[in-house]
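request received
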Amino acid sequence: DTAVSQTPKYLVTQMGNDKSIKCEQNLGHDTMYWYKQDSKKFLKIMFSYNNKELIINETVPNRFSPKSPDKAHLNLHINSLELGDSAVYFCASRRWASGDQETQYFGPGTRLLVL
Amino acid sequence: AQSVSQHNHHVILSEAASLELGCNYSYGGTVNLFWYVQYPGQHLQLLLKYFSGDPLVKGIKGFEAEFIKSKFSFNLRKPSVQWSDTAEYFCAVGGSQGNLIFGKGTKLSVKP
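response:
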C-alpha cells in the first residue's frame, strides 16, 4: 500500500500552461508539505498545511497555489508555467502530534519539465 | 534562521570501505536531526533521526550517526559500504513549523 502518492509521476508541458499535481496520503496524518528539488538536488520547503490550514508559505511565486480539500490531500496548482519551474516536486506528510519528533513520509515525486 | 551544511558534495568509495558523511547545523537550541537517503529515481526515505537521549543513533541498513552538540554536528557513518548504498544522502534539521530544512546533499558512489 502506497503511503504517500503523487500524480502524475512525470509531467512535460509547454511554457505558459497551467498544470496541477495531486498528492494523497493514507497514513491518517494531519500535516502535509510540498517541497521542490531543483536540478542540483537541493530540497526546499514550499508550503505546509495542517488540518487544511496553510501554515507555511515560503517565498514562492503566487503562480503556485496549494489546495487542501481535506486532511488526506494536498494539491499543487501552477499557473503560467516557466522554464525555471522545471524540478522534482515532493509531497510529504506527518502527524502533527506533540511536535517535531514525528517522521515525515515522502511521496515518489513528480518530475516536471517545462519546455 | 536554521541551516544545514553538508561539506562533501560527491564521495566515491570502493565496496567495503568505511563511510563518514559530514553534517553541521546552525541552530544552538534544541534540535531534531534527520538523515534521509534518495536512491536513484526514488523518493526520500528516512535512515535515522535524533531527538534526544543517546547521541549515537542507529538507523536502517547498518547506518548510524553521532550527535555532537559542541560541534553542531550530526555525521553519518557506515563501517562497510555496499554498491547498493549508491545514492544521494540528505541531512536535515526540523524547522519551527514542522518542516524539514535540508542540506544540499552528498552524492555517494560506491564502486563494485
